[in-house]
């Protein structure tokens, strides 16, 4: 199974490089801003005031939701988050792990500590890798200050109530 997962990760990494190009001279924010599939994420990072942080030395691992992932949030939730900087920062920093965690490293993990403070559940199985309930769709998009793994859903901290953008 580990061999299958490593093969899956290797294929996903190659696809990511072909799709996103190598970006080792660019920061995480630069890489995201250069890809139109991350325009909502870049807007949210800007609104949250996290651009300077994600441009710093890091390293960081970012589980980056695509525009489609943000569009799939319950109606009104994205607007509510964008209007509430504290909650927006909590959601965005929940997608970030300190350090550079490459796809090959994820196979042995069952969780990771988010910068926000709450753990992110990680499951590697025959269907690929999931972080909480989001599938990792592309891996190891390298930046000068970390790595991006693309996910198909916005993940919310467990303390945050779904649908309203409010904390418990």
User: What gyration radius follows from the Cα positions, in whole Å?
Assistant: 15 Å
As for the number of domains, it is: 1
Query: What is the level 1 CATH name?
Result: Mainly Beta
Q: What percent of residues are in strands?
A: 15-25%
Order of helices and strands: HHHHEHHHEHEEEEE
Structural class: alpha+beta
Assembly annotation: single chain
Bulk shape: globular
Name given to the CATH homologous superfamily? FAS1 domain
Distance between the termini: 38 Å
DSSP summary, beta strand count: 7
Under CATH, the topology can be stated as: FAS1 domain
Alpha plus pi helix count: 8
What CATH architecture would you give?
A: Roll
Described by strand count, sense and barrel closure, the largest sheet is:
7 strands, mixed
Poorly predicted segments: 1-23, 163-168
Overall average pLDDT: 85
- The strand line-up of the biggest sheet is 2-1-7-6-5-4-3
Helix content: 25-40%
Overview of this protein structure:
The chain is an alpha+beta fold. The chain has one domain: FAS1 domain, CATH 2.30.180. 39% of the residues lie in helices and 23% in strands. It has helices at 2-20, 28-33, 39-48, 51-55, 67-71, 77-83, 85-94, 103-106, and strands spanning 60-65, 96-98, 111-113, 119-125, 128-131, 134-143, 146-151. It has a seven-stranded mixed beta sheet. Helix 3 crosses helix 7 (85-94). The longest helix is centred in the N-terminal third of the chain and has 19 residues, at 2-20. It starts with a helix and ends in a 17-residue tail after the last strand.
